[in-house]
Amino acid sequence: MSTSLTEETQVTESAVSTRLSSLDTLESEAIHIIREVVAEFEKPALLFSGGKDSVVMLHLATKAFWPGKVPFPVLHVDTGHNFPEVIDFRDRTVERLGLKLVVGSVQEFIDRGELAERADGTRNPLQTVPLLDAIQQNKFDAVFGGGRRDEDKARAKERILSLRDEFGQWDPRNQRPELWNLYNGRHTVGQHVRAFPISNWTELDIWRYIERENIELPGLYYAHEREVFARDGMWRAVGEVSQPLPHEEVIIKTVRYRTVGDMSCTGAVESDAYTVSDVVVEVAASTLTERGATRADDRISEAAMEDRKKDGYF
Amino acid sequence: MSTDTLTSELETALPTTLFRFATAGSVDDGKSTLVGRLLHDSKAILADQLDAVARTSADRGFGGDKGGIDLALLTDGLRAEREQGITIDVAYRYFATDRRSFILADCPGHVQYTKNTVTGASTADAVVVLIDARKGVLEQTRRHLSVLQLLRVAHVIVAVNKIDLVDFSESVFREIEADVQQVGRELGLGSDGISDLLVIPVSALDGDNVVERSERTPWYSGPALLEVLETLPAADELESHLESFRFPVQLVIRPQGALAPDAVAAGLDVEAYRDYRAYAGQITEGSVKVGDQVSVLTPGQDPRTTTVVGIDFAGSSLEEASAPQSVAIRLAEEFDVARGDTIAAAGTVREASADLYASLCWLSPKPLREGQKMLVKHGTRTVQALVRNVNGKLDLATFKLEQASTLELNDIGHAQLRLAAALPLENYLHHRRTGAFLVIDPLDGNTLAAGLVKDHPGDHEDERYSI
């Protein structure tokens, strides 16, 4: 079937109907990776913030081990600036699945003087130290994350199993080649591995999957009325840790969150997407990336994510 | 906003399928630009990403007075890459059309970074190799094509780029096309019934024949690159006719008392699942039905044959499943089955062997030496291995095997290994998953090589395929 594309060449029509859908293929790949990590590591844990990607990760884990329990604890790095409804959702989820929850607290590190509050009030970059501390204290040798390669240019270069050194650092120039579906998780004492089973999913895949699987999310992912003020070109919620400056006018808007992180740096978008199907339509038509639209910390520089990751961030 | 109409449109559309492809090229042949063009023209680039790239392009004076956007900036993600203007590591990008979702592995072209091409190609349904129309087929092109032949990539697409810089000349294109086909013939690429080889004239910078067919190449009547990527059959479609079911066991699901509380709350019959036992894994090839006869292959034991009594997936019982589904399989007999075993269609796997003959793509600066001890990861099992012989390495200029007793970074060679346990090894030529393995350094755990199982020298082997 040697062909050069000349006049007589016909490109074969593929039998689409007989193949798995892209969502089923991504789901199978993620479950394969989750099972590999559980089989090959002594003590894995799953990063769980109550955000949509970590909720999807946990859902995949329940499917991977059905009818057994998810065989690892979940780890949350609490910035102390979380949305209360997300913390409530986190606790209900953990109880429903009978999981152990480990919390690393940014506030405790600040109180002990081991971390300093930043001038801009953003606590996202402060999560790295408590994260690494929790990994070390609990001797986790593999940590599942919900990172996706479509989120950011530095993430696009991350392996599915990503080796971290004794200091939790990522060395992007010295990554192991990842071949076929054979994952090499070997590491030495002190090193650990970050595992990203949904690396190949896009934001739209996540939402289509949430819709298909009927997965519950914290309510702030859907349109609701909220007191907000404009800052850095996005809508910030009025809350204990995000107060408007005198010149910033507070108004009530119908908004939703595309990402759920630290209240001090996560913005809302105007939206009338009240249901998961509305959100799928909205995301499919969006002209901004989720981080560009809603994360102040990623606007600091083109390499903001890369710099945080090198230091051991998620 | 009339979301109802939009929703129903999304729902009535056929579900899209996944297609994985990689790009490979030499330095400065415009690969990043081509990738940027595909993403841009298929509307996968969102406004804030484009703004950032436009700002950086302007800061650097891209395009001189004409201005414009340096599409290469869309893919170079690391600080060092932007500073040095080169691509260091494989970047994965995502875009979708109405028919397919694409995963693109963008592989750097530096000669010292061949490991990235091997990485990208190992999972790819297709690979796009770039050639600069002004330079034609280079040694690097030959190296890429030989790697793709070795890895059995189903579709190799050669994009002859910068066709605008040779004034859209048909004769330049035809000459390069003939050279490519000649190299393909020497390699067996595109003439072996397994792979195909397509050649397309493109201008990544202007978009000719990338997403839309170009009017500036009237002598070319074939499809544009994206049309090809949308319609080529994916590797698992091509392999779906194979009746060789293969299932490396990842782990045993045996909850005993520890049933999932959410499943119990949803009404799971606790008594019925008390003794539940299933083997979890991903089907690497073929398909399986309830009632099928299968062999359980355990290293060091004779194959044991039994019947599939159940295929479970997260609470659903399936009648049938096929690659690449992740499922849990229940068997009629209570065998001692563990991680590292393989379940396969009965009687289709040859005897396990501790003697491994293989092609190795050496990906590490640490060279391979005879007598060295290593680890081999095959399927879900990792075993110790001893390097018996290095049987030569490939000369890329002639595609002939030359004498060598060591393999160095980027070498592709033949070696014979002795394994600490017999494994159900299969020829990579016919089994892309169960014929592949990793070579791992026991000291630091790094991946040293991509391994491809060959037949034993005594067995019949078609020499055409024996790079």
Give a quick rundown of the structure:
The complex is a heterodimer of chains A (314) and B (467). Chain A has 2 domains: 20-204 and 305-310, HUPs (Rossmann fold, 3-Layer(aba) Sandwich); 219-299, no CATH class.
Which key phrases capture this entry?
heterodimer; A: 314 residues; alpha/beta; Rossmann fold; 2 domains; six-stranded mixed sheet; four-stranded antiparallel sheet; B: 467 residues; alpha+beta; Elongation Factor Tu (Ef-tu), domain 3; 3 domains; six-stranded antiparallel beta barrel; 24 strands; disordered C terminus
Can you describe what's shown?
The complex is a heterodimer of chains A (314) and B (467). Chain A has 314 residues and is α/β, with parallel strands linked by helices. Chain A has 9 helices and 10 strands. Chain B has 3 domains: 15-238, Rossmann fold, CATH 3.40.50.300; 246-345, Beta Barrel (Elongation Factor Tu (Ef-tu), domain 3); 353-465, Translation factors (Elongation Factor Tu (Ef-tu), domain 3, Beta Barrel), CATH 2.40.30. In chain B, the strands form 5 sheets. A 6-stranded mixed sheet of chain B has the order 2-3-1-4-5-6, sandwiched between helices. Chain B is globular and about 75 Å long. The interface between A and B is large, with 91 and 109 residues.
